[in-house]
Amino acid sequence: MTFGDGRIGFEYRHRFRIDNGILSNPHEHTLLPGVKNIIFDIRTNFIVKKNAVDSVDEGEVLDSEKLTTVVLNAEKAKPYDLIFHTWYRLDDYWMTKDEMDRMTHEAVEFGRQMAAEVADPQPSDLVAIPISVEIDVCTVQQEGEAIDDARERAIRATNLVPLYLWQITFTKNNSKRLWLMVYLRRKLERVRVLNIDEGLGLMNVCSICSKKPVFGAQISTLPCGHAFHTHCIVGVLEQDNLCPTCSYPAYDPDNMLHSLV
Q1: Who's near 37: CB < 8 A, 6+ residues apart?
Q2: pLDDT tens sequence across 55-72
Q3: In this predicted model, what pLDDT tens digit does every residue of 6-35 receive, in sequence order?
Q4: Which of 13, 98, 164, 217 is the most buried (most CB within 10 A)?
């Protein structure tokens, strides 16, 4: 297990292992014949730890999510390939670039080591090396902080933009979510609260959830000037593109096609 010292109040851990159970699960990527395919099954646990001193404390798991599944050719795999498929969510976890680089480098190196132990395939063989990548995003209780306050500011799936909005692909039935994905990637400002005064300068309270800004939270301000927790306003914009306070359009789907990548 590798530990990463994140920003004050947060820690990150990651670990890798062979997991043959992955082979029984459907995944979105096709295996290439005649090469050693590394399947990275990446999952995240969101944890709150009672204090920063007691390193033995594994913490309380608040929730979890499956980030993604990535298949790479072992011979050509590079850390960048893994970052390309995960950076959008690792950034939501508030991981630093150094932490992202360390985790992806170690994951690819582990995958290569496991692949080296497998016999070279024949041209028609479908060979897979299933690697479980488990990430712990830990919110650490600080001195003088109540554990409930630590839980309140915890980075966790329910306090983030829904994962499926980052991964969505176009179909006739999901055009509204497609435009929202474009808006998230290109237009929606997201500010991480580094101190409470800064957060209060953006909003006194989120009118959607009735909660004040806390350290580490993400706040988004719409074109009309009204600000909300990012995950709160995204939930509203999934249903309507209008500001819930003043009904001013947050984005115009008809003018966003050029932003799609």
Answers
A1: 31, 71, 72, 73, 74, 126, 127, 128, 129
A2: 566 789 999 999 988 999
A3: 567 899 999 999 999 998 876 666 889 999
A4: 217
Q: What is the DSSP string of the chain?
A: -EEEE-STTEEEEEEEEE-GGGGGS--SSPPPTTSEEEEEEEEEEEEEES-SS-TT---EEEEEEEEEEEEEETTT--HHHHHHHHHHHHHHTT--HHHHHHHHHHHHHHHHHHHHTSPPPPTT--EEEEEEEEEEEEEEPPTT--HHHHHHT---GGGS--HHHHH----TT-HHHHHHHHHHHHT---EE-SSHHHHHHH-SS-TTT-----TT-EEEE-TTS-EEEHHHHHHHHTT-SB-TTT--BS--GGG-GGG--
In 3D space, the residue among 254, 194, 214, 250 whose CA is nearest the CA of residue 7 turns out to be 194
Record the pTM.
Answer: 0.84
b/e for 81-109, b at 16 or more Cβ within 10 A?
Answer: bbbebbebbbebbbbeeebbebbbebbbe
CA-to-CA dists, residue 244 to 179, 224, 249, angstroms: 18, 11, 10
